[in-house]
Design a protein that fits this description.
The chain has about 375 residues and is mostly helical. It has a domain of about 120 residues. The protein has 16 helices and no strands. The longest helix is centred in the N-terminal third of the chain and has 31 residues. The termini are far apart. The relative contact order is 0.11.
C-alpha cells in the first residue's frame, strides 16, 4: 500500500509540474499578459547586464558554449544511469522492475540528448522526469538530481542543439528531415542576448533559493551553529577518506589554529549559503568572493567529501552562470556581416566609426585661399 501511495505522489508531482508549465504557455499566448511580461523580463535582463552579470560575448560562441555544457551534463548523467542499472542488475540499489525501467528511460533520454537528436525536447523531458519520476521510482532522490534538473531545464529553454549535434547536421543538409527539424526549432525560437541572460538569471535564482533553504536548515543544527562542522568533516574517515589522517595530524600539531580556521570556514560557508543571491547582485567584490568560494567548495566536495556527483553538477551549473567568455570567443567571431539576431548579437562594445572632419569655416577657407594664391602686388611706376 505504501508503495502505491509513493507512486501516486510522484504522478501528482508530475501533473502539478505539467499544469504549471501549461499555465505559463497559455499566459504566453495571451498578448496583453505576454507583452507586459516581456517588457518586465527585458528590463530585468538589461539591469543584470548593466551590472556586469550574465553577459554574452557573442551568440555563436554562446550557442557552442551551451551545447558543450549539454554534452558534459548528459555524459555525466548517462554514466550515472548506467552505473545504477549495473548495480540494480547485481542486486544492489533498487532492483525492482519499476526502478530498472525508470533508470532505462533516463539512460535513453541522456543518450538522445548527448547525440543531439531533438535536443531541446529531449533535454526538457530529462529535466522534468529526472527528479520527479526517475529518482522517485528508484527511491534515490538527491540534491544532485535537483541541481541537474535546473541545469538541463535552462539548457533546454535556450535552446541547445544548434551546435555539436545531429540536429545541427540535419539542418545544414536540408531535405525533408532537415526541414522538419528546422520547424521543431522554430517552435522553441532563436537564441538571443536577452534570452540567454534571462535563462542564466533564473537558474541562478533557483539555485540561490536552494542554497538559502540549506543555510536556514543548517542554522538549526548544533554542528553548524557551534562552528565545528568543518573540523568534524575533515577529521572523520567516513567523510574524508582521502586525508583524514592529515587533518588529525594538523589538529594535534596546532589545535588552536586548526580550530580557528575550521570555525571561520564553517561560518563563512553559512554566510555563502544564506547570502548567495545578494552577494552576487550587490557588486563586483562580493560577487567574485561568492563565485570563488562556491567553486572552491564544489572542488572540495568532489575531492574530499563523498559528494562527487553533486559537486560535478554544481561546477557545471557555475560554468553556465559565470563562464561569460569562452576561450575561443573573440568580438565578432562567427558573425555574418550585417547580421543582427533577436535582441542583438553580443554585449561586447563595438568599435566606433571614425568621424569625418568637419568642413572648415569661412575664416579658415579665406586663410587657406590666401595661402594657396598669393595676393597681387601693386604696379611699380
Amino acid at each position: 500500500m505504501d508503495l502505491w501511495v509513493a507512486e501516486l505522489t510522484h504522478v501528482v508531482d508530475l501533473l502539478v509540474y505539467c499544469a504549471i508549465l501549461g499555465g505559463c504557455v497559455a499566459a504566453a499566448c495571451m498578448r496583453p499578459i505576454a507583452g507586459t511580461f516581456d517588457r518586465l523580463l527585458l528590463w530585468w535582463a538589461a539591469l543584470l547586464r548593466s551590472r556586469g552579470l550574465f553577459r554574452v560575448a557573442d551568440l555563436p560562441s554562446e550557442q557552442r558554449r551551451l551545447d558543450l555544457l549539454r554534452i558534459a551534463c548528459t555524459t555525466l548523467v548517462g554514466a550515472q544511469f548506467a552505473r545504477n542499472l549495473a548495480s540494480g542488475a547485481g542486486g544492489g540499489l533498487d532492483g525492482t522492475p519499476l526502478a530498472m525501467g525508470a533508470q532505462s528511460v533516463g539512460l535513453l533520454l541522456a543518450v538522445l540528448a548527448l547525440a543531439g537528436i531533438a535536443a531541446p525536447l529531449v533535454t526538457l523531458m530529462l529535466a522534468v522526469l529526472l527528479n520527479v519520476i526517475v529518482d522517485g521510482l528508484s527511491n534515490s532522490p538527491s540534491l544532485g538530481s535537483m541541481v541537474l534538473s535546473m541545469l538541463l531545464a535552462a539548457l533546454a529553454l535556450a535552446p541547445v542543439g544548434r551546435a555539436y549535434s545531429i540536429d545541427a547536421s540535419l539542418m545544414r543538409r536540408g531535405g525533408p528531415l532537415g526541414r522538419f527539424v528546422r520547424r521543431m526549432y522554430a517552435v522553441w525560437g532563436p537564441l538571443s542576448v536577452q534570452r540567454a541572460t534571462l535563462i542564466r538569471s533564473l537558474a541562478f535564482l533557483l539555485y540561490g533559493l536552494v542554497a538559502l533553504h540549506s543555510g536556514l536548515s543548517h542554522l538549526r543544527e548544533d554542528g553548524w551553529t557551534s562552528g565545528s562542522m568543518t573540523a568534524w568533516l575533515l577529521a572523520a574517515p567516513t567523510t574524508n577518506s582521502l586525508a583524514a589522517s592529515l587533518a588529525d595530524g594538523l589538529y594535534r600539531a596546532a589545535p588552536t589554529a586548526y580550530s580557528l580556521l575550521t570555525r571561520c570556514a564553517t561560518y563563512l560557508m553559512l554566510v555563502w549559503y544564506v547570502g548567495l543571491i545578494p552577494l552576487v547582485l550587490l557588486g563586483r567584490p562580493t560577487r567574485w568572493w561568492a563565485i570563488v568560494w562556491g567553486g572552491g567548495f564544489f572542488v572540495f566536495s568532489i575531492v574530499v567529501l563523498p559528494l562527487r556527483t553533486l559537486g560535478a553538477y554544481e561546477l557545471l551549473l557555475w560554468a553556465l552562470l559565470f563562464w561569460d567568455r569562452p576561450f575561443w570567443s573573440r568580438p565578432g567571431l562567427g558573425l555574418p556581416h550585417g547580421q543582427v539576431a533577436a535582441g542583438g548579437t553580443r554585449d561586447t562594445p563595438t568599435r566606433r566609426r571614425a568621424r569625418r572632419p568637419r568642413p572648415p569655416g569661412r575664416s579658415a577657407r579665406a586663410s587657406a585661399r590666401s595661402t594657396r594664391s598669393p595676393s597681387r602686388s601693386a604696379p611699380s611706376c
